[in-house]
Amino acid sequence: MSLLELDLSFLFVVAVILIWFTIAYQFILTIFGYINYVKAMKEQKEIDKQSFDYPSCSILIPAHNEEKVIGRTIESMLNLEYPKDKLKIIIINDGSADGTKEIIQRYAAQDARVVLFDVPKGLGGKGKSRALNFGMKVASSDIIAIYDADNTPDPRSLRYLTAQLLLHKNLGAVIGKFRTVNKKANLLTRFINIETLSFQSMLQAGRWQMHNIATLPGTNYVIWRHLLEELNGWDEEALTEDSEMSIRLYEAGYKIKFIPYAVTYEQEPQEWKVWIGQRLRWVRGNNYVVSKFWKKIPHFKSKRLAFDLLYTLSLYYVYFIAVVFSDVLFIISLLHIVSISLPGPYTFVWITSIFLFVFELVLTISYDDEDKLENIGLVLLMYFSYCQLWIYIVIKAWYQDYIKREKRTWDKTVRFDVPVRPPQ
Question: Which residue, 32, 226, 245, 271, shows the most beta carbons closer than 10 Å to its own?
Fold first, then answer.
């Protein structure tokens, strides 16, 4: 065996170990996600039996050029089963150049719960974090709820979220589940539907059950207003303001709980270029979060949080580097450019990893009755297509942040005309 073959063989084995570690950990999270699902169904029934003295709540909805969706969203908020005298729906018109403001004004004229806040001229369109900070200044309620401008939550969602804050004093925030309203639009939205459901079942439900850790999403969550004030609001440099705020909440001694029965529906990208732009924002946002807290990780009060942040880094970079290397090596081996003569059941390992990937995703989407034969086939297709595209996203984000050092700017997701509820 040549020195080159030996080096490649060693790197190949390392790549296999890293990939298998990630898949194995995801499998553990899948099991804990199932345990959480069973417990959550029992918990929901118990909550339904109780009555609560709900505190005042302000819903903050940043809106930048949202005329296609904002009307349906406001109607959905007005239908929430929450005491009317304790609810304010603050729509933050963030420099919109379309008919967003006029639509908000019409609803505000009809219902006193709807409040229009206009970001001062010249200060709008600077990102979600800034818009939320503007909204927080005019919100006087005990609890702040965050929803995106395309969201249509289940009527019970807000009271489920708030009830958890009242029941558990160690919680700083409570998050619910988001589902894809346009899941049947095309192949891309079908992929996204599977991805988002499995992500929430593994990395939200699984982590909460296993570590008592969950991460704020961009929507469908509640947080105590006094905590936001103590933490000086959202970081306006963060593209993923939710991830950044999550770490500061845990470091302040609070927890974030995930409850899958508080559901909202949202739009997902229907075009690949829109999907790429959104995912680039996510990865670059996480790059910022990791860079901001990197030196502080060894000093975190919560060692589980430190592990979780390191796992995020490994998921985005170490795992994808391993996947890229194994893919390249597989191709050049097929072309007989280099051969791996190291003995081992690598074909069996590779096939087993694919089987585990499919099994994990099918199990997690079954919690929402999405484990149809059609979706099982889509999961297998995702492994070889959709998941591989993430490699491009991670590499491009790394290039923009660390080679070109491009300024991080907010990239709004394009909206589409879709039904309020997904077709059954």
Answer: 245
Contacts of 52 (CB under 8 A, 6+ apart): 159, 162, 163, 166
Helix (H) or strand (E) holding 394: helix 386-398
Residues forming a β-bridge with 116: 91
The predicted model scores a pTM of: 0.89
Would you state the structure tokens that stand for residue 275, as one six-digit string? 């999907």
Question: Is there a domain that residue 19 lies in?
Answer: yes
- Residue 151 backbone class (left: φ over 0; alpha: ψ -120 to 50; beta: rest): beta
Q: How far apart are CA 182 and CA 191, in angstroms?
A: 11
CATH no. for residue 288? 3.90.550.10
pLDDT tens track for 237-272: 999 999 999 999 999 999 999 999 999 999 999 999
Contact 187, 268 (CB under 8 A): no
Specify the number of domains making up the chain. 1
* 132-182 pLDDT per residue, tens: 999 999 999 999 999 999 999 999 999 999 999 999 999 999 999 999 999
Q: Where are any strands of DSSP class E within 270-403? A: none
CA atoms of 79 and 90, how far apart (whole Å) = 15
- 423 lies in some domain: no
Residue-number span of the structural domain to which 31 is assigned: 1-415
